[in-house]
Structure formats: C-alpha cells, structure tokens
Amino acid sequence: MRLLGLWCLPAVFLLVHASERELDWWESTIFYQIYPRSFKDSDGDGIGDLKGITSKLEYLKELGVGATWLSPMFKSPMYDFGYDIADFYDVQEEYGTMADFEELLAKAKELDIKIVLDFVPNHTSNESMWFEEALKGHQKYFDYFVWEDGVEDENGVLQPPNNWNSVFRKSAWEYREEVGKYYLHQFVIGQPDLNYRNPDVVEEMKNVLRFWFDKGVAGFRVDAIAHLFEVDKEKYGGKYPDEPISGQDLDDPLSYNYLNHIYTKDQEETFDMVYQWREVFDEFKEKDGLTRVMMTEAYSSPQVTMKYFGDEQQNGAQMPFNFVLISDFNGQSSAGEIKYAIDKFLTFKPIDKLANWVAGNHDNSRVASRFGPKLVDGMNMLVLLLPGVAVTYMGEEIGMVDGYVSWEDTVDPSGCNTDDPINYWKSSRDPERTPFQWNNDKNAGFSTAEKTWLPVAEGYEQLNTEIQLNSEGRSHIKIYKGLAKLRTEPAFRYGRYESVAFNTDVFAFRRWYDGDVYIVVVNFRDEPHTIDFTYFEGVNGHLEVVVCSLESSRRRGDVVEANNAKISESESIVLKLVQ
Ligand code: GLC
Ligand code: MG
C-alpha cells in the first residue's frame, strides 16, 4: 500500500502545483464590515465615529483581518443612516472630518489593513446640492434624476405615475410642487434615484470613485446595484409601465414584494455600468500596482449575479456578493438544503473567478439570532474555510445577537414604514445595528453617552470582546482567530473542495492540497450523530481535532476514528487527517 502511495506521488505533486499561484491581497484576506455608527464612539455623543474606528484598527489586526469595508460615512441627513448621501465628497460631521478619515487611512496603512468604502450610486439624498438645484429648475441637475407626471384619478386628484413601490414599502414616487412632477425613489423619500441614462450622471459618479481612490482607498462595496436602472420608458410610449403583481403579500399592495420588479431591478444596462466602473478601478491599479477591489450588492438569482463578474471581453466586480448563507437557508434547513445552497454559487461562478462568503451584514438578522448561538462557530467555519474570500460583519466574531429595539426607539425606515407597532421588528434592521459590545462597562464600552443612538443589546455584560479575549477557556473570538489563522494554510488557500450532507443534520466538506487533508463538519441540529468520514476519498485511519466549537467536549489535538466519529449536538469541528 505504502509503496503504491509513493509511486503515485510525483503525479499528484505535479497536478497540485499547477493550481498554485501567488494570490493577490484581496483573494486571501478577510473583509470585516464596519457599520461606523455602531462600532466605537470616541466623543461621547452616542454615535460611532471615524476616530473610534481608528482606535480599534489594532483589534482588527489581532483578529487576523486584512481589510475592512465601511458603510457610508459621507455627509447625510441620515434618513437611511448614511445611505442617503448629501455630499459624496465630504464626511458626515457626527463621524468626524476629512482629516480624521485621512488619519484612519494612515493608521490602517501602518497596520497593513486595506480600507474599502461604500459607493452608493443609485441615489443621492434629497438634501444634496444636485437635488436642490433640480428643484430650483436648474436643467443640468433636473436631468440627474428620474421624473414623471402624475395621473389624475376619477375625482381629479393627482396620483403617482404608476404602481411602483419602494423597497421600504409605499409608493416609489414623491411629488414636488416646485417642478410639478413626481421623482422616483426606490428606497426612502429622501433618496431620489439618479438617472443613469444621463451621461453627466455617469461621469459625475466616476469622479466620486476617483476622488476616494486618490485618497488611497483600496476598493468599494457597491450599494443596491440591482436598482441602478429603470426600464427605458421610450420603449413604452414615453410612460413607465406598471409592474405586474407577484402573488406575494396579497394583503398589502403597498409592500415591495407585492410586485414583480421586471422594470426596476436587474436591468441589462446595469452590467455595462459595472464594467465601466471597473475600468476606473483599473486606471488606479495601473498607476500604483495595487488592485482596487469591487464588491457588488445584489440580492438576485445566481445567473444574474454572475454577470457582475464580467465576461470574456470585460472585467466586472471581483466579488459579486454571494448571499446564499443569508438568503437560502436558515436554522430549520436540512443539511441537504445547506449543501444545495452552498453549491449554487460554486456551480454558477465562472471557473476562473473566486467565490465569496457572507453570513451577515447591517441589513440582515444576526447569525446567532437566525441559527441559534450554538451555530456561531460553525457558521464562522463556513465563512472562513469554504473556498474563496471571507466577509465578516462586525460582531459575528463574538456571536452578537439581535438587540431588542422597541417601536418607540425604532429609527430604521424599513421598520418605521410598516406603520405596525406589533410586527415592525420583522422588517426593521435596527436589531442587527445595535452598538458593538466591547466590554462590560457602561454601554458595553461603545460610548460614554447617557443615551446611545440605538440601545445596547441585553446581555452584553457576558457577551463582549474583552471577556472572550481574556477567558481562560474557549470563546467565539478565540475560535474565530484560530480559523483566521488556519485559513492561511495552503489547503484553504489553494486546496480543492468537496462537500456532502451525511444525513438531514450534518454537513461536511473536505479541503485538500499537497498531502494535507482537512474536514470541516457542522451539525446543524441538537441531535448527536455517528459519521463515517471514509466516505471522502483518501480519508481513513485517524483525524485530529484542529478547531472545535465552543460547547464541544473535545480538545485540540484529540484524535477521532475516521470511520466512526461521534459528532455531538450542534457541534462543529475542523479535523485534519493524521498521515
Ligand atoms: C443597500 C444597503 C441598505 C440601504 C439600501 C439603500 O441595500 O445595504 O442598508 O438601505 O441599499 O441605499
Ligand atoms: Mg461620536
């Protein structure tokens, strides 16, 4: 047997090394998403800020993170907490000054942490100079936005141009008396959509990218990209047509899901715009050699998502966000459904592109709340060890839970627009935006203020970074750090991938490279199982525990029989084949 193994070695050796190449900075790193308002408040006003972030960059370094993407910190009246931008070239006062941002960049550079910003191209704020000028009848800026005449109903009352609804519920049209027309806002009233059929808008927004690249940012996360274009109304007799009814939310015609968004989402022109932006990104790479990375945010089908990568002719985003860990399964899903969801992106993605894994962000309920606290480490194992780039939302490394925010305290427009003091929490995004939990001081060490912009989640006295970093035993954050380190092993950088649902509860995958073989196993249920890992080719004998979840009774270095491995309730483990 052994002899045979040796005989095969040269062939395997050659095969494996053919796939190895030097990875670019973004391909092997972890991107850590910071929601600036909730990360760290440096001046005691109850609102996170840039100086706060700068003071915590060392924390990111310690985690093993090499890049951070920041939700918007630009000037904004905060109707959508920064996603309504009044000045794309300036910093919001509450968050600091341009000098503070430059300091943040400098400190990040010192620590070799890349800074990625949020590019919000779909809309501005209704308090932007551009929109204000538009209302004054300044033609150049009027043409920056999407306008339409209202229609009179049978009583002669003016109504919106058509049935389009905003993502946050209610009509997507708002009337402005100054110009006697309605403007389109796919999000809140304070977010008028920009008109991408106007070349001036296209150029203006490219300049926004250039401005921040010149300052030294390493890329952009591109917001709400699927909404960029509306159908060309000239093809419909000069009027935007109604969208068809989807069959969902039939009791609420004002809900976004009530309609099928064939005229306002995923329009073909969107992809070309992404390719054009990529050219701007590459202009900067040509100058200094640093790859500028683009991540696109679209909750679309895999077929549509892949188009953001580009094609043979043109390059697009390096990272069209892969949201399957958010959208395609939950705590009730079977291991088979989980495998199916994970395979989806891997199956559709072009062979020469990288996958990426995102389990949480500022728009979705936290991992610990969706899957239960016992699965926090298992989900971090998926994000950090599946093949591709890892993206972590701040707080997921310690297993933060959704905070409780009362109807009275709710500020997210998505919650407020429900007009429903009972069920608002299902739509509100405040729970996943509560302040970061640093320690068990006042306001979890986030701020010294009397009142923070959102209440701190209950239980922070036991759930915070300080306790977890200093704990004698295991903790989520220590496990996370272990995984971040493991991720730098060749098997996880270059290794191949194979996955299996062993039964309805247990999902596992193998990564292997150059003789190293790892198995990552996650039991999604509170039921114990005995697993035969010799199912995986080349796996037999013994496996050694490398990392295990918080409540696992195993220890690092424990040895498991490959053909008879007991996996306890909700246990997640990384195993390595003993050679
Ligand atoms: C994106 C953001 C979300 C924001 C919306 C409008 O989905 O992630 O927070 O509300 O775009 O800009
Ligand atoms: Mg502050």
Automatic annotation (TrEMBL):
<dbReference type="InterPro" id="IPR045857">
    <property type="entry name" value="O16G_dom_2"/>
</dbReference>
<protein>
    <recommendedName>
        <fullName>alpha-glucosidase</fullName>
        <ecNumber>3.2.1.20</ecNumber>
    </recommendedName>
</protein>
<feature type="signal peptide">
    <location>
        <begin position="1"/>
        <end position="18"/>
    </location>
</feature>
<keyword id="KW-0378">Hydrolase</keyword>
<dbReference type="GO" id="GO:0004558">
    <property type="term" value="F:alpha-1,4-glucosidase activity"/>
</dbReference>
<comment type="similarity">
    <text>Belongs to the glycosyl hydrolase 13 family.</text>
</comment>
<dbReference type="InterPro" id="IPR017853">
    <property type="entry name" value="GH"/>
</dbReference>
<dbReference type="InterPro" id="IPR013780">
    <property type="entry name" value="Glyco_hydro_b"/>
</dbReference>
<dbReference type="Pfam" id="PF00128">
    <property type="entry name" value="Alpha-amylase"/>
</dbReference>
<keyword id="KW-0732">Signal</keyword>
<keyword id="KW-0325">Glycoprotein</keyword>
<dbReference type="GO" id="GO:0005975">
    <property type="term" value="P:carbohydrate metabolic process"/>
</dbReference>
<feature type="domain" description="Glycosyl hydrolase family 13 catalytic">
    <location>
        <begin position="33"/>
        <end position="433"/>
    </location>
</feature>
<dbReference type="InterPro" id="IPR006047">
    <property type="entry name" value="GH13_cat_dom"/>
</dbReference>
<keyword id="KW-0326">Glycosidase</keyword>
